[in-house]
Amino acid sequence: MQTPVYLSGQFLLAMPGMIDPRFDHAVIAMCAHDEDGALGIGVGATIDGLGLHDLLDQFEIPHGVAPDAPVHFGGPVEPRRGFVVHSGDWGGQDTIDVAGRWSLSSTLDVLRAIAEGSGPTRWLVALGYAGWGAGQLDGELSRPGWFHVEGDAGLLFDHPAAARWASAFGSAGIDPRLLAPTTGNA
């Protein structure tokens, strides 16, 4: 039996031709992956017409110094649940460190801190997540459809969402324009 590859702190990239259209050109920041399952936050697409100020308004949090940053499509699971992927220079009651590369928080204290200017220096907000049950992602990784690369905070925070997919492949030395949307069989 092959030892599973655990992807916490890496990016999971949807290959061209992914059957599930929700994951077309997806870039997923993997935040947890072990024998019990996996959780990742989509960072490759934003939700049209939704900004951070809209979310802050819903929770009656004054905007303060927070820019009206786009909100990312974190994934199809629990699409109304919010997450903040952020630098490790801030921590709240539920913050988890992700392989020393970034942190993940999902309570209102991080949104309040961002609005007050006392939160993490680098962050992005997402609604929903991508989740897999025990062994499910391991099975998916054994078939065509996903590619993983090392997680990099620069790619996460310094590139716009629309550029992350191509940039992540580029970080592995792959020109995504040369990828075929189908696979062959012998």
What's the topology here?
Blueprint: E1 10-14, E2 27-34, E3 37-42, E4 46-51, H1 52-58, E5 70-73, E6 77-86, E7 96-98, E8 102-105, H2 108-116, E9 123-133, H3 136-141, E10 146-150, H4 153-158, H5 161-171
Parallel strand pairs: 5-9
Antiparallel strand pairs: 1-2, 1-10, 2-3, 3-9, 4-5, 6-8, 6-9, 7-8
Structure description:
This protein has a single domain (10-178), classed as VC0467-like, CATH 3.40.1740. The chain is α+β, with helices and mostly antiparallel strands and 186 residues long. It is 21% helix and 33% strand. Strand 7 and strand 8 form a beta hairpin. The mean pLDDT is 93. It contains five helices and ten strands. Strands 1, 2, 3, 4, 5, 6, 7, 8, 9 and 10 form a ten-stranded mixed sheet that branches. This is UPF0301 protein GCM10009102_14230. InterPro entries: AlgH-like.
Give me a quick take on this structure.
With 186 residues, the protein is α+β, with helices and mostly antiparallel strands. It is 21% helix and 33% strand. The chain has a single domain (10-178), classed as VC0467-like (3-Layer(aba) Sandwich), CATH 3.40.1740.
Index terms:
single chain; 186 residues; alpha+beta; VC0467-like; 5 helices; 10 strands; globular
Helix content: 10-25%
The CATH architecture designation is 3-Layer(aba) Sandwich
Strand coverage percent:
25-35%
Q: Which secondary-structure class do the elements indicate?
A: alpha+beta
- The tally of helices reads 5
The separation of the N and C termini measures 24 Å
Q: Number of folding domains?
A: 1
* CATH homologous superfamily annotation: VC0467-like
Name the overall outline. Answer: globular
Strand element count: 10
CATH topology: VC0467-like
- Using only C-alpha atoms, the radius of gyration works out to 17 Å
